[in-house]
């Protein structure tokens, strides 16, 4: 069998290496991949979607809260505070003017100690203040409204000064710039950060409690193949999830029982049919010599066809409980192909020998059925190994895309005449599909450039 294995570092006859295949499969979606598989691979999980929805809604709530806080709380408070501060400055100037000169120093001291205001009748040449704080600009406008003349705020040392004309005097009143400073930006940032954090961790906790049982159901449904070793889902959590788990367990048990009964019934009937077939063969052997040989030959052909059909039915009903073994994939496939009378070339796209844990009997029946099916419909059949994918390629007429799912159904045949000369019993690909599902493998049909069919079994 060694001469049938073409192992090379480069891709033989247009084949690609397993690394390149993996890279391409990540970048370009498979054209023959089922839409459900593509949708399942590309769709987001329920946890991610729910968190995104909650995050967007929480962000909108925070934005609305910040805008409402600014419009209905911060701005009115700032305007009222600026108006009160302007009133205090004007009142201080009026009181200073009305006091006798000897009492004014005591009043100035009281303003400095109790109100952080510095009032002076000596004007200092100061530069205009940079009104980068919204509150200072608002205060300047309120002062101008109360005094009836434009007012300019000045910057001096660590204070902001306002020139206030009052009763024939030009007074300068200084106050701290941070006295009434407001920070709506910082308030918004705090609300956004803390609010988003609270919403995120709360939603994460709630959503995980909801989605964890759903993830378990999805995983069980993904691996469930109707076997008898099904482990039921835990029936716990909210009432709706308990009902979902209970009904899923009931459905899985019913399906397992149905498949088991079907397998037992089909295997029993097929096995029992072997006895009358044996009797019929014996009866043919005991017929007198004067019976027409052509009639006997037709009976023998019919018995052989019936025996082949029974064998296919037995293989269809059998074989889901085989235990996995460590197998060197390329030599194992080469041994299987060596059992055919017609040489079947094998191409291996990687120099590294791949060892897999799998059911060897199931894989043997899969490859034999696929190669036999290819030989029935094409003159040339070849097998190619690319990583964990086994490609069985024939040169036949191909399978229409509309029938690629139906050909895996029992007794379905593209040739509606059901002639034995153009095909078998219609169970070959059904057996392949059943064995692949039982072992967790994936089988799909692809087109071949230039005609033919490529059946891919992904281990």
Report on this structure.
The chain has 459 residues and is of the alpha+beta class. The protein has 3 domains: 2-41 and 321-458, 2-Layer Sandwich (Heat Shock Protein 90); 44-224, Beta-Lactamase (2-Layer Sandwich); 226-319, Helix Hairpins (Orthogonal Bundle), CATH 1.10.287. Helices cover 54% and strands 14% of the residues. It contains 11 helices and 13 strands. It has helices at residues 18-27, 35-42, 46-98, 104-114, 134-147, 184-223, 239-285, 293-317, 329-337, 360-377, 428-439; strands at residues 5-7, 118-120, 127-128, 153-156, 159-166, 169-175, 325-328, 346-348, 355-358, 381-386, 389-394, 442-447, 453-458. The protein has a 6-stranded mixed β-sheet with strand order 1-8-10-11-13-12. Strand 5 and strand 6 form a beta hairpin. Helix 9 (329-337) packs across helix 10 (360-377). The radius of gyration is 44 Å and the shape is rod-shaped. The relative contact order is 0.09.
């Amino acid at each position: 069998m060694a001469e049938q294995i073409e192992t090379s570092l480069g891709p033989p006859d247009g084949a690609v290496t397993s690394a390149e295949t993996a890279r391409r499969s990540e970048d370009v979606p498979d054209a023959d991949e089922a839409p459900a598989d593509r949708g399942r691979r590309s769709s987001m999980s329920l946890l991610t979607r729910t968190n995104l929805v909650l995050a967007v809604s929480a962000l909108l709530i925070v934005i609305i809260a910040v805008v409402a806080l600014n419009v209905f709380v911060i701005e009115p408070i700032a305007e009222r505070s600026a108006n009160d501060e302007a009133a205090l400055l004007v009142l201080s100037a009026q009181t200073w003017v009305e006091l006798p000169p000897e009492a004014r120093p005591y009043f100035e001291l009281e303003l400095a100690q109790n109100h952080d205001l510095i009032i002076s009748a000596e004007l200092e040449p100061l530069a205009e203040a940079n009104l980068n704080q919204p509150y200072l600009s608002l205060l300047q406008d309120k002062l101008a409204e109360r005094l009836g003349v434009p007012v300019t705020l000045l910057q001096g040392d660590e204070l902001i000064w306002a020139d206030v004309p009052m009763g024939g005097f030009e007074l300068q009143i200084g106050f701290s710039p941070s006295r009434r400073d407001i920070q709506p930006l910082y308030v918004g940032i705090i609300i956004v950060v803390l609010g988003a954090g609270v919403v995120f961790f709360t939603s994460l906790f709630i959503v995980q409690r909801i989605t964890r049982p759903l993830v378990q159901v999805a995983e069980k449904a993904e691996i469930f193949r109707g076997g008898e070793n099904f482990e039921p889902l835990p029936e716990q959590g909210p009432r709706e999830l308990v009902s979902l788990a209970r009904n899923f367990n009931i459905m899985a048990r019913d399906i397992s029982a149905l498949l088991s009964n079907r397998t037992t019934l089909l295997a029993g009937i097929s096995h029992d049919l072997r006895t009358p077939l044996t009797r019929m063969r014996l009866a043919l052997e005991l017929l007198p010599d004067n019976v027409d040989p052509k009639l006997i030959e037709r009976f023998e052909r019919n018995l052989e066809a019936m025996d082949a059909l029974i064998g296919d039915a037995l293989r269809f009903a059998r074989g889901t409980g085989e235990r996995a073994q460590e197998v060197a994939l390329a030599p194992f496939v080469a041994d299987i192909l060596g059992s055919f009378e017609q040489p079947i070339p094998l191409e291996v796209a990687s120099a590294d020998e791949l060892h897999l844990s799998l059911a060897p009997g199931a894989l043997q029946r899969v490859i034999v059925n696929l190669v036999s099916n290819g030989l029935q419909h094409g003159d040339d059949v070849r097998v190619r190994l690319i990583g964990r994918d086994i490609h069985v390629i024939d040169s036949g007429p191909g399978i229409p895309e509309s029938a690629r799912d139906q050909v895996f159904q029992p007794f379905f045949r593209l040739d509606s005449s059901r002639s034995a000369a153009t095909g078998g019993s219609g169970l070959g690909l059904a057996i392949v599909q059943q064995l692949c599902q039982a072992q967790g493998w994936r089988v799909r049909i692809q087109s071949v450039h230039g005609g033919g069919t490529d059946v891919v079994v992904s281990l």
